[in-house]
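FAQ

Q: What does a record look like?
A: Structure on top, sequence underneath. For example:
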C-alpha cells in the first residue's frame, strides 16, 4: 500500500520493527499521517490504522526482548491515540464506514485496537447527540413560543417591516413554483423596502437570471456581495436560495446549489455556513450520508447558536428518516 502522507521511510509491518529506531520511524510516520488526513481516502486511513497496530504490538515486544523502558515511545503512542479519537469524524469520512467494516472482517482486530471500530463509536456518538438535541429541541420550541407571544404583544413590527415580510413571502412562493414573472415585482419591492437585506438581493438576482436578464442579475449579485460578511457567506447564502428553489421541485436549481456551496467551502473551509449549505446541497442530491457528515461538521465548528441548532435538527431528521430527503426543510433561507 502506498504511503498517503509524510516523507519518512517506515517499516512495512510489525515484523520489521526490530529495534527502537524502527519504532521511532513508525511513530514519526504515524504522526505525519494523522496531521494530514484530508483527502487521503480509504487507502491512507487503512495504512494509518495498520501502522497503529504495528506500533501497539512492537512496544511491549521490544521492551521484553531488550529489557528496555520505552516510556517516551509509549507517551507518543498515547498522544497519537488521543489525536485519533479527536479525528474520528474525519477518519470515518475519508475511509467510509463500509470500508472499515470490510477491513474488520478481513483482519479481525481485537477490541483493544479500538481504532478499527471508529465507525461504530461515531454512530453511537451521533445517537447520543441526537437524543440530547431532541430534548434541547423541545426546550427551544418552548422558549421560541414564549418569545413569539412576547413579540406579538410588545414588539410588533413596523409597517415597513410588515410590508417587506409580505413581499418576500409572496416572492418566495412564486419563485419555488417557477413563476418568475410574478416573483419579480415582489422581490423588487422587497429590495426597495430594505436595500441592505442580503436574502432579498440574492433572490432578486436568481429571478433576473431565470428571466434571461443577465446584466441585472450580475448587478444584484454585486450588491449582495457587498452586503455579505465574507465571500464564503455570499456563496453559501446564494446556495441556500438555490436549495429552497430545488426543494420546491425546480431541478435546475439542484446543481446550482451544489456548485455555489462548493464555492463557499473553497472560499473558507472553516465557515460553518458554507458547510451547512454544502450539506443542504447534498440533501437535494440524495447524498444522505454526505449531508449528515456536513451538517455534523457545520454544527461542530459553528459559533452561531441558531445555526448549530438548525444543523443538528436537520442532521437528526435525516438520520431518523433517510428516505424522506425533504423532511428537514423549514421556512426562510434555511
Amino acid at each position: 500500500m502506498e504511503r498517503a502522507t509524510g516523507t519518512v521511510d517506515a517499516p512495512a509491518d510489525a515484523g520489521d520493527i526490530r529495534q527502537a529506531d524502527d519504532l521511532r520511524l513508525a511513530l514519526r510516520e504515524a504522526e505525519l499521517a494523522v496531521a494530514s488526513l484530508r483527502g487521503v481516502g480509504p487507502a491512507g486511513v487503512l495504512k494509518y490504522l495498520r501502522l497503529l497496530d504495528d506500533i501497539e504490538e512492537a512496544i511491549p515486544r521490544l521492551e521484553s526482548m531488550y529489557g528496555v523502558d520505552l516510556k517516551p515511545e509509549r507517551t507518543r503512542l498515547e498522544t497519537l491515540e488521543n489525536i485519533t479519537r479527536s479525528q474520528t469524524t474525519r477518519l470515518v469520512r475519508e475511509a467510509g464506514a463500509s470500508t472499515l467494516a470490510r477491513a474488520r472482517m478481513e483482519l479481525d482486530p481485537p477490541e483493544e485496537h479500538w481504532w478499527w471500530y471508529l465507525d461504530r463509536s461515531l454512530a453511537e456518538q451521533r445517537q447520543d447527540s441526537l437524543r440530547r438535541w431532541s430534548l434541547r429541541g423541545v426546550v427551544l420550541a418552548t422558549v421560541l413560543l414564549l418569545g413569539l407571544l412576547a413579540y406579538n404583544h410588545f414588539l410588533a413590527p413596523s409597517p415597513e417591516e410588515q410590508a417587506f415580510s409580505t413581499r418576500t413571502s409572496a416572492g418566495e412562493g412564486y419563485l419555488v413554483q417557477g413563476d418568475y414573472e410574478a416573483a419579480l415585482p415582489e422581490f423588487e419591492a422587497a429590495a426597495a423596502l430594505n436595500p441592505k437585506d442580503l436574502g432579498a438581493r440574492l433572490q432578486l438576482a436568481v429571478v433576473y437570471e431565470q428571466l434571461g436578464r443577465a446584466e441585472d442579475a450580475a448587478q444584484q449579485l454585486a450588491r449582495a456581495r457587498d452586503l455579505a460578511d465574507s465571500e464564503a457567506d455570499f456563496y453559501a447564502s446564494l446556495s441556500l436560495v438555490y436549495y429552497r428553489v430545488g426543494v420546491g421541485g425546480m431541478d435546475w436549481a439542484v446543481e446550482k446549489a451544489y456548485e455555489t456551496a462548493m464555492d463557499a467551502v473553497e472560499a473558507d473551509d472553516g465557515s460553518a455556513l458554507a458547510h451547512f449549505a454544502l450539506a443542504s446541497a447534498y440533501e437535494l442530491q440524495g447524498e444522505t450520508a454526505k449531508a449528515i457528515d456536513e451538517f455534523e461538521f457545520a454544527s461542530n465548528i459553528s459559533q452561531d447558536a441558531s445555526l448549530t441548532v438548525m444543523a443538528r435538527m436537520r442532521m437528526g431528521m435525516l438520520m431518523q428518516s433517510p428516505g424522506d430527503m425533504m423532511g428537514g426543510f423549514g421556512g426562510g433561507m434555511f
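Q: Is there anything notable about this one?
A: The chain has two domains: 14-122, 124-320.
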